[in-house]
Design a protein that fits this description.
The protein contains eight helices and 17 strands. It has 351 residues and is α+β, with helices and mostly antiparallel strands. The longest helix has 29 residues.
Length: 351
Amino acid sequence: MNNLLNFKSFLKFLSKNKSYTFIDIFGLSVSLMFVVLIAIYTKQELTVDSYHEKKDRIYVLANDEHLGTAYRIADRMLERYPEIEKVCATTTRLQEPVTIGDVRLSADLLLADTTFFDLFDFELIQGNKERILEAHNYAVISETFARKAFPSTDPLGKMIRMNDSVHVVVNGIMRDIKNSAIPSCDILFRMDNIKYFNPGMDSYEFDNTGSVLIFILEAYARGTPFDRGNNYTVVYNGKNISFQALVGDSAYFHMLGYEILMDNNLGNPDGYYLNEQSFLELEIADDVPSILIGEDWNLTITGKVKDFQLRNISYNKNPVLLQLKKVEDFSWEIREQLIHRLKMCMNEFPG
């Protein structure tokens, strides 16, 4: 009863002191508004591009000053670094005039390589992800632009004129790009059309550095550098031989540059590739299918790989056992190798 009386007294006080009441309610409202805004902002920042399946393997090429680089560097990097599975160069052109029939509109353009939907999981409303940028003149339009430019017709198959040299055909519709570091766009089409907008950007002389963002998809490789320790000693024909033993998947082999000279793999997952030094120290011919190690290990020889240095070049070459496994057999992932190579790349190419 006393609490009810106190509450009524408080309401009576507020009704008699309207300025005080207004200031209190206004201050509380503003405070709550900022709490809500901060919560929304924090959530958005923490979830930017989090919906991409390959998000942990995607990098953007950058240096200490900015993110942009030259378009054709992407081709050079893909050729040179096996740690890179795919690259995707992108650039934007804002408020470009486009023509649809007799109607002129302004549109935000995003030019991207055909690998765009291999790296990123932006939702397609219409269109086949595998073939959506297959042709040189194919384009994808946003859901909002589709409603604006084609309010009463199906956009698929319709032509959009960019300029005298570029006429694209709508081959898909995508959800508007939101909550992403990649800017929202009205029309997405192939990057190799950039020469019709800015010929200098298509140069292998690396002109217009800084005008393109290059996204890099890390090669997915698993393995273990020393599966049985730094040295794995076996006995063969009464002689002790110390091997370096490595296990990895095919991408791991490619990433570290193992050159296979001979391949006898007949579907045997338990066989081993031996390097040239191993054949020399074991004193066996290239066509030997297996050897008896110790008293009970019949080692199946899968093939032969070229010698390579596992340590500093001042060390002698070691006999090496290499075993090829499937990705799911491993829990250890190679990641630092790619990061290190990308750092070297930024010192080599302009940015």
